[in-house]
Automatic annotation (TrEMBL):
PROSITE patterns: HEMOLYSIN_CALCIUM. It comes from Solirubrobacter ginsenosidimutans. The lineage of its organism: Bacteria, Bacillati, Actinomycetota, Thermoleophilia, Solirubrobacterales. Keywords: Signal. It comes from the Bacteria. GO terms for molecular function: calcium ion binding. This is Calcium-binding protein. Residues 221-241 have a biased composition (Basic and acidic residues). Transmembrane segments: none annotated. SUPFAM superfamilies: beta-Roll. Residues 1-24 form the signal peptide. Residues 176-241 are annotated as: Disordered.
Amino acid sequence: MALSRVLAAGVGILALALPSAAHAGTVSGMGSVSNTYEGSDVDEQVAIRTEGAMTVFGSSAIGLGGPGCMQVDGDTASCPSAATTIVNTLAGNDTIDASGVAAGTSLQVDAGLGGDYITDGAGNDTINGGPGGDNWIAGGGSDVFNGGDGDDTADYSGRGNSVTILLNGQAASGEAGEADTVGADVEGASGGAGNDSIVGNNLGNRLSGGGGNDTITGGTGEDRVEGQEGDDRIDTRDGRYDSIDCGAGTDTLLADPGDGAANCEVAPDRDGDGTLNEQDCAPDDPAVHPGAGEIVGNAVDEDCAGGPQYLRVTAPLGYSTKGRGNSARFVRITLSEIRAGDAIEVRCTGGKRKGCPFSKKTQTGKAGKSKVNLLSLFKQRYLKLNAVVEIRVTRPNEIGRVQRLKVTRKGVVKSELLCLAVGATKPGKCS
């Protein structure tokens, strides 16, 4: 690991590192200009603070170089204060704690290989994560965190006030007026106890709200979002699979239909069509909602008006009969407005004892022939009392037309018009 430079600010700096047998490098003092700490390839812990001078407490032995630096003991060094401290870490999973550095001193950390744990100070610091999964705990000041390779996290979990965390490389994160820059190469973000706003990027993000009533917006990758405590609002609509745990509280989730969700109390508009789920007859289909344009003739109720809308077959039946006692025969029976492909079905119920020459006959409408004469089917036979003739005309995705004719006393034929719903086999009253 390496602690690189500190530009003088008139306030001393203490850098602390915990004991280890490996050599950690040197602290170089350049008077009021800069201080440098060079690390090693082992896991190290370094703490830095300003108390009249810069003191480095290392987990490894520290060698001194440059005017003004003093060897305190084998793992502690002290140099004149500076306005900028640069920490260069090499390989290893290092811990750098600069929370004791005052606002007058800026910290630059160039983390090397490994997963490093970095707490910056109160100044305007720059943290370059480098390869490995790094965790940055944001201190005061307007800081810059560049994650580098690996799964990196911007951690504001220790904050009590509301923070904004934008993983976009712009100076717009932190508390009001703080203007931290969280790089677009950072994958994770953790909010604190306030009402935080967290927005992901195009990487697979890990976003945690913490306490408070947070607003969390996932990015365009496959994200893992945890609302945790508070009444959170979570939006993961991006067309990719996301995993959401809303956590405690009364939470609101706006998600894609395929997202996995748990502990979410309210999902007002899951499909994003502008209609709350409670009023949406198809909450997972954005094309179906109240106010949508109804497409007549398909099986979908686009406008949630109580069912799909279908046209009705119009095929008027004209007929005349001749009575004899309690029987009657057809003199004329013709269908009109028949289209090519229409299914025509004629049924006669009662069997031979009622004079029916058939039980069922079918035919298909032909192009250029809109009228169909059915008279030949009945062979001039008299149909007896209570014989029933039913003529059905159906076509795809339309309500079928059914006309039922029944022979009554004195050879009177009574007619009843019925409808056959799409997909149904038994006719019913027309609505």
